[in-house]
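EI: anyone free to look at a 429-residue chain?
SC: sure, send it
EI:
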Amino acid sequence: MTTSSITPSKFQSNWKPKFFTIWSGQALSLVGSSLVQFALVWYLTRETGSATILASATLVALLPQIFLGPFVGALVDRWNRRAIMIVADTSIALATALLMALFALGIVQVWHIFVLMFVRSLGGAFHHPAMTSSTSLMVPNQHLARIAGMNQTLQGLVTIFAPPLGALLISLIPTQGVLAVDIVTAALAVIPLLFISIPQPQRQIDQANGVARRTSYWQDLGDGFRYVVRWPGLLGLILLAMMLNFLLSPSSALLPLVITKVFNGGAAELGWVESVFGIGIIVGGVILSAWGGFKRRIITSFCGVIGIGLGVILTGLAPANMFYLLLIANFVLGFTQVFANGPLHAIFQSAIAPEMQGRVFSLIGAGATAMMPLSMMVAGPVADWLGIRFWYVIGGSICILATVVAFFIPAIMNIEQNQKKETESQPTA
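SC: here you go
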């Protein structure tokens, strides 16, 4: 492995071949992970037929990122981020290989699958902030929104093609064969990292040269919280994103019930809706990749959020005899999701100090992930009490209203313009 440090400016002087080599490996690994996720969920469904088991599997996959995420970020900022990605991917691959052996021997148990899901989630809790915070050092600032668009396009492609591809593989090869695919794709993600140096934050470069002051882990962790709290625009934007995630997460979880109980549909109709949603993501991702959004990224993001709110409301209001409106609503949801999330990620990557990004991205990820089970705990009883589609209308309306209000909050709207002033007032990491 190449261990020499490289500065962001040196990497960015010829960034495209190096970055896209790494990005392609990560993209293939994402496909492999999606296939494994599909295969394991299908296995649990087929072998147990238990909703409790499936719900428990989802919870196991969320817990590491919710409870460990805030503590992982400080380690991401202290350690070499490339090494973190290599260790995370390799650890997940080894755990997958062990489970593959258990399947081959015919001795696999449900708890074995739960352990793998926990390990995969734990690895992701390290890998995601390491890759996201490294992207801002590898990619010039003016291209971050386009890269975010590419990532959204990739997510759309995986949404459309991973389930049928997973179903096809399961019909042709045993479960351990599908797991083997993930090991191969994980290797394709790790190999480029062994030969391409990734820029590190200036603090880590200084520490490697014995220049910077040494701080404890707990000091770094506290600095991360203070960095967010003392920057009103950043804190406001994070809280807004968490609130929107709380309002919108149930829309996808309740969708099967909307299709069966309101539109009297079945698996085919659900497949059509999910496919149209994925197509919307791909179309939006291609456009964002080419265009890059408005000069002020926050405007692009908020326009996307308003579009999501409109799509959610249309889902809640579409008449039962107009299934095509549900398809249109989900295309809108996929399409506008790209413009909401892509520029927002670019804002975080460009505005947050590189040496703080691991901590901040981990906090954001933990907060966003925590909103999922919390919102379902509220949305489920509300849907049973007031009707399935009530949450869509109310959630979408509040989503739009909150975003319109945010347009009039200078600290949030000027987060990119105030970047330098805010970061200069922060304590040294």
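EI: DSSP finds 18 helices and no strands in the chain.
SC: 👍
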